[in-house]
Amino acid sequence: MGIGAVVRKARAVSSARSNGNDLFKASRFSEACLAHGDGLQSDPLNTILLCNRAACRSKMGQWERAIEDCTAALNIRPSCTKARLLRADGNAKVSPKKHDQKGWPIMQAVKFPPVAWHQSSHQMSSLAV
């Protein structure tokens, strides 16, 4: 892949992410989901786009599809906290009595400063980055 192709790919991903984030902030979740999906066509291993699309899908109540995106992100980057939080939330919605057994022990091991944990728990509705 030449330098020009790399630059085009980076611009396409950046544009899709920015557009998706703007749409998410405007509560246009379906359109935001499509925008992040467009970016994933250029870079299918982009964990940020996968998590952002999962956040959109969560907002639309598409829990299984959100879980799939989170699992894909975690397969690429197992330490992705955002994907773990979103997947655990989705699993709680799909099966309220069964928690995300894969993600919970790891989340317990993560040492969040009290302020960071407080902020992340209250910002679940604005997870698009």
UniProtKB/TrEMBL annotation:
It comes from the Eukaryota. Transmembrane segments: none annotated. InterPro entries: TPR-like_helical_dom_sf, TPR_rpt, TTL1-4. Signal peptide: none annotated. PANTHER family: TETRATRICOPEPTIDE REPEAT (TPR)-LIKE SUPERFAMILY PROTEIN, TPR REPEAT-CONTAINING THIOREDOXIN. This is Uncharacterized protein. It comes from Amborella trichopoda.
